[in-house]
Amino acid sequence: MQAFEYRTPRNLQEVHEDLKAFGTDVKLIAGGTALVIMMKQRLLSPTCLISLRSLSRLKGIAQKDGGLQIGTLVTHRELETSALVRRKLPLLAETYHHVATIRVRTMATVGGGLAHADPNQDPPPTLIALGATVKITSASGSRKVPLETFFTDYYETILKPDEILTEIFVPVLKAGSGGAYLKFLPRTADDYGTVTAAAVVTLDRSKKTFKDVRIAMGSVGTTPIRAQEAEAILRGQPVKLEGIREAAEKAKQAVDPISDFRGSAAYKKEMTGVFVRRALQKALENAGKTTEGRQRAPRRKKR
Ligand SMILES: Cc1cc2nc3c(=O)[nH]c(=O)nc-3n(C[C@H](O)[C@H](O)[C@H](O)COP(=O)(O)OP(=O)(O)OC[C@H]3O[C@@H](n4cnc5c(N)ncnc54)[C@H](O)[C@@H]3O)c2cc1C
Q1: How far apart are CA 200 and CA 215, in angstroms?
Q2: CB neighbour list of residue 207: distance below 8 Å, 6 or more residues apart
């Protein structure tokens, strides 16, 4: 690893100033779990690292405007164990629980994970299915973008060299909604998924019709992928297993996986269909509906 300068700004303004001053040779460092490995492998050789550790402003989780506002320095473990997140958006806590091991989750931050932009990561499909947006700032201002437009290629995002991710906003589920995230893990429990799928469904009052559906998939392309054509098959349609199967088939057409040690491209494509179907079924169950079209029996009150 080559020598580098290590900066420790105390606030966002100092980060912006440092980013501007050092240009493209600089890297932000949050948890360091991805960046340090890439530096050791000489895939990246920045001459300056800007540590975000002292930026307390980026560390909180708060309830705001019908959702959760999450600072990008919040760690995966904090998100996974937060009482607020578990109460308001259990799907989010469950998804972060799937990332690697407690050791990694304790260091890795929400912002570092997104900016790293490995298409095999767990959180992006769930965050996209939930309709998350991110806030990006620089010395010249700030912008908010839907997360689904944030990733552009393998390890590539829309972030410019002088920009930093500061916040992520995740709307809570609407009434009549349920969500699910599934990770196909045929190897070890701490591996990246061979295929991953997230689904969020919203049913009408009668619970017989899909009012809205969002589906996103991971590990099956150069970025996380939203399955919009599959969603369109279900939106406004009655909840039926045939429709779910048809949507899952359509989702397969949106993916372009590579063959690697986790499976061949053809196998991953087939498993995408299976896992999208299962994610939709689980999301429906979490919305209080079984996929056979029967509504769950109401629980008896304890005497
Ligand atoms: C052994 C191991 C196993 C893993 N397994 C999984 C897994 O199963 N599932 C999964 O989803 N992930 C997995 N990961 C990846 C892990 O999620 C990432 O390493 C982690 O999220 C990166 O976060 P960080 O805070 O450590 O980022 P850092 O390593 O500090 O930074 C990563 C990148 O983000 C940039 N960056 C950091 N913060 C910001 C910011 N606020 N704004 C703009 N850019 C920023 C850095 O400049 C760098 O380019 C694994 C990692 C390891 C080491």
Answers
A1: 7
A2: 176, 239, 287, 288, 289, 295
Integer CA distances (angstroms), 303 to 15, 74, 179, 297, in order: 59, 42, 31, 18
Shortest-distance Cα residue to atom 37 of ligand 1: 112
Rounded-to-integer distance, Cα 59 and Cα 63, Å:
14
Look up residue 250 and give its two tokens.
């359509």
Q: pLDDT per residue over 142-189, tens digit each?
A: 999 999 999 999 999 999 999 999 999 999 999 999 999 999 988 888
Instruction: Give the percent of the chain with pLDDT over 70.
Output: 95
Quote the pLDDT of residue 186: 82
Which residues, listed in sequence order, are joined to residue 64 by a DSSP beta bridge? 67
Tokens of 146: 């839907």
Residue 241 CA to ligand 1 centre (angstroms):
38
Give CA torsion, residues 202, 204, 206, 210, to 10 deg: -60
C-alpha dist (Å) from residue 130 to 49, 84, 124: 33, 17, 10
Name the band, by pLDDT with cuts 50, 70 and 90, for residue 292.
Answer: low
* pLDDT tens-digit map of 62-117: 999 999 999 999 999 999 999 999 999 999 999 999 999 999 999 999 999 999 99
Closest residue (by CA) to atom 49 of ligand 1? 116
Question: What is the position in ligand 1's atom list of the atom closest to the CA of 44?
Answer: 49
CB of 80 within 6 A of ligand 1: the answer is no
Residue whose C-alpha is closest to residue 110's, from 45, 52, 183: 52
Taking the centre of ligand 1 as the mean of its atom positions, its distance from the CA of residue 192, in whole angstroms, is 13
Ligand 1 site, residue 34, Cβ cutoff 6 A: yes
Q: What is the pLDDT of residue 281?
A: 97
Nearest ligand 1 atom, CA 27: 47
Cβ–ligand 1 distance for 113 under 6 Å, the answer yes
Ligand 1 atom with the smallest distance to the CA of 37 is 53
